[in-house]
Amino acid sequence: MSANSHPAELRQLALQALMEPDTQQKVLLALDLQTRAATLSIANDAAFQAPDGLPGCPARPELRSHLDLPRRSPFTREGLAALLHAVTHIEFNAINLALDAAWRFAGMPPAYYLDWLTVAAEEAQHFSLLQAQLQGMGYDYGDFPAHTGLWDMTQKTEGDVLARMALVPRTLEARGLDATPPMQAKLRKVGTPDALRAVAILDIILRDEIGHVAIGNRWYRMLCTQRGLEPLATYAMLARQYGAPRLKGPLNLAARRDAGFDEAELALLSANA
């Protein structure tokens, strides 16, 4: 290292990965960031200006409202591919969500930024597994239209890390804990080798997503404590303020417990599902 050079900085590198439009390059950048995490400096007190054009995305898939997406049966090969494509799109968005959490918010402890690099790398692995499955079926990411819902909430919460932790990992991503077992049950009914391979991939994703939601829960509670806020009442207020989507049951109570939801919140969520 020359006398004039500086160690690579984590948040700026996360922003560069977030801006990358090529899916394969974004995956490589996310994985590389986690590998290098221990060697990176962290400018955790610096407020960075958000550039235009976030996040970096490929030209395809075509993005539509979720109301405009066609419904297909997973019992057809095309319908199964469309279902897996929808999950692949969620995982691509999840890479961006984690990278955005890592670069956007100043003033957090170093462990916060390292946590979100870990999440970004695991989401990149999920995306790669699903994309490979799609390619094995003769399709690829971008072959079906997709929706914008996950990134919409990211934009809404860009001004407050407390709202981000409340409404992205522990709301939107936690919905994946509930949705995965029913999806796996449907795929087992389809019963083809492709469907059963998808069930195995979803096992990996569910395991990792419990950890991701736990990270969101941990930092949400830390921020509530730091600001002198009661977590349950604050969550209800934030959900109303930012228009969080209505919860759909049944809840995966075991996974949510593993992800750090306590019994009081689970009772409240169950009553509203």
Annotated CATH topology: Ferritin
**SS elements, strand count:** 2
User: Order of strands in the sheet with the most strands?
Assistant: 1-2
- Fraction in beta strands: under 5%
- Approximate helicity band: 55-70%
Number of domains: 1
The CATH superfamily is identified as Ferritin, core subunit, four-helix bundle
Order of helices and strands: HHEHHEHHHHHH
User: What Rg do the Cα atoms give?
Assistant: 19 Å
Please give the CATH architecture.
Up-down Bundle
> How would you characterize the largest beta sheet?
2 strands, parallel
Provide the CATH top-level class: Mainly Alpha
Which term fits the overall shape?
globular
Q: How much is the average pLDDT?
A: 92
Uncertain regions spanning at least 5 consecutive residues:
1-5
Give the helix tally: 10
Our measurement of the CA-to-CA distance between the termini, rounded to an integer number of angstroms, reads 56 Å
Structural class: mainly alpha
Structure characteristics:
273 residues; mainly alpha; Ferritin; two-stranded parallel sheet; globular; disordered N terminus
